[in-house]
Amino acid sequence: KKVSNPKSKGYLKEVQSYGEKRLIYMVLMSLQATEDLEWDTIDMEDHTTWNNLRKELRDSGFSDVEVNRIIGECINVNALNDEKIEEARDRFLLEAQEPEEE
Question: What are the angstrom distances between the C-alpha of 66 and each of 2, 14, 51?
């Protein structure tokens, strides 16, 4: 459902919902690389199931602190920060300075 009028009643709710789904998707995609990871109630093809992430992690035996840490680390790994930008810049400049092999 597309809400294109920022003055409409549901606009902020839709924007917030989109942001939450996008964040959960990023976390799920990050965790997808985990070998033998299976979800009981999450279907990557059905975005309406993505909100089950916290519950599934808790039901698997993780505490709330551990769940928050898992999600936080997934966000941290995927986010840009000054250190990552500086590292990328240094790598780019180093490659730009290397002579081309013929």
Answer: 35, 29, 17
pLDDT per position as a tens digit, 61-85:
999 999 999 999 999 998 888 888 9
Q: How many CA atoms lie within 13 A of 4 on its CB side?
A: 1
Query: How far apart, in whole angstroms, are the C-alpha atoms of residue 77 and residue 93?
Result: 23
Alpha carbons 7 and 28: distance in angstroms, whole number? 32
Structure pTM?
0.71
Longest dimension (CA), the chain: 63
Percent of the chain with pLDDT over 70: 94
